[in-house]
Amino acid sequence: MKKAIIKGLIGLSLSEFAYAADHAALDEVVVTATRTPQQQASVIADVSVVSAEEIRRGGQSTLIEVLQRQPGIEITSNGGAGKTSGIFMRGTNTGHVLVLIDGVRMQSATAGTTTLENLPIQQIDHIEIVRGPVSSLYGQDAIGGVIQIFTKKGVEGFKPYANLGYGTYDTTLAEAGLRGKQGATAYAINVSANKTNGFSALDTHNPNLSDNDGYRNLAVSGSLSHQIIEGHEVGLTLMHSKGRTRFDNRYNIDPSFPAFNPAFSDYADIEQDAYSLFSKNQIFSNWHSTLRIGFGLDESVTHGADSFAPTRSLFRTKQDQLNWQNDITLPVGTLTLMYDKLVDRVHSTTDFNETKRTNEGYVASYVANIGAHTFQASAREDHNSSFGNNVTGGLGYGYSINNAWRITGSYGSAFKAPTFNDLFYPDYFGSPTSNPNLKPEKSDNVEASLRYRDETSNASLTVYENKIRNLIILDSAYVPANLNKATIRGITLAASKQWESIDLSGSVDIQSPHDADTGNLLVRRANRHGQLNLGYTVQDWRFGAEMTTSSARYNDAANTLRMGGYTLFNMTAQYRIDRDWTLQARANNIFDKHYYLALDGNPAIDGFAYATPGANLFVNIRYEPQ
Fold it and tell me: What are the boundaries of the signal sequence (predicted)?
């Protein structure tokens, strides 16, 4: 049937192709929500899928830009492409989102976050986003949710592609790949290179101190799988991304500091790797086993200057991973039994008291669809070498009122262990910067949703409350501390509608990410944010308009450093030259809005604001035979 659909799409106009692609997307199969394949329409969790077609026609140059358009997500960025960035999902911390690449964890054990700014969008086929705590399936870190990135894999036939682009800030892009399948063997190899001269990472308001802080990246991903006999498949996946980003160190651009040295340009070399070997085996007709051995690397080497002397700072995290998942089909529903092992190893020029931590997890999960009813239950026990045992669980129920309307409700608990930086970072000039007495963060989340879905429409209203105990924040002295409790309540409204030549989608988030004791907003999070996307197709043309908006945020826990709200407008255009060639253009921030996503200190006293891109344009041409 899949071959027939692909064959039928060949030769369609852009308008017809876009309609067919969006129509098919309504029946996406997702795996991240339950760790087993499920039709998106039957999933209980609050899930989004960013399809390959959406990524292609969106024309965004970074993963952060793609994620910013998704419900429940806010972003922070320290000065443009390749600079330290993060996402807040449903108002939780940037370290509360677990990121997987083809099933492999990708995270820094020192910073506690994923270096999203160095993951090129060109290597990604599609993305699954699960909002809400799912530690009962994935273990530590998934307090806010899970993002799973799937790189491009082998497909039927022989399918090469290539893409070239150029834009503002002397931004260049080149990518090429080959995907195919020969008999029982599927393969894919993808290479991308991008470079930008960028702009000054810090908004100094002083042209004599401004410079361009560029970024470049070279990445490769690939996969190889072979079906030995029916029901038994082995394979491997890989993703390697190497980048260099330049940034502004205010010690080098502010003459009031002793280390003032404007001639030195600070930069960091960033590397991320995700490798895995897997074996998928149908042991019995009702028992399917997946064994995956994975390895993740997150490394940054920062080169700076201190009192005129060059400095080098290394932070490297290696994550050895083992996962054995067994899915057993029962007369009613599917039972999943799983064993997880994660070993974090840290190597750094900074002297940490501990450099290794092990976590083992044992999972039992059950999913059943019985008529109009869907049930889900999961429980997990983690044995952490530093923090002992942690038990998490989840319960969910969904009921289909009719073919279009559905209601769901769920409960989930989660936890996150403090990072190596939180616990062991050495004192700085005699002042503490870490806290060895920190406790793991723990959360309990309840939510309910009402959803509507038909052949051309999709809408959902989700209400949630996430109570986080021992939330780790930076106190007034910038030392990590456990906040007694934070309660985040919110409403997410998301909808999309497809007509023959027009598609409309958008979302609105109204939330209260507050410190329960002081009532202050959590750092860099807003009470309201949303986005709206409009597309129009005619013949071989497609035009798009996007709006992203956010209310005010604060850069500090005391809510004294205010960052004003903002609204950004973007536009896209795409022309299908013929069946194999497509020309695209994307204009971002077309009204040249001046806004901030992060500050460095107090701009009015001794700090600076991190700059954001002004109006910019990117044009590319893509070759992809149908």
Answer: 1-20
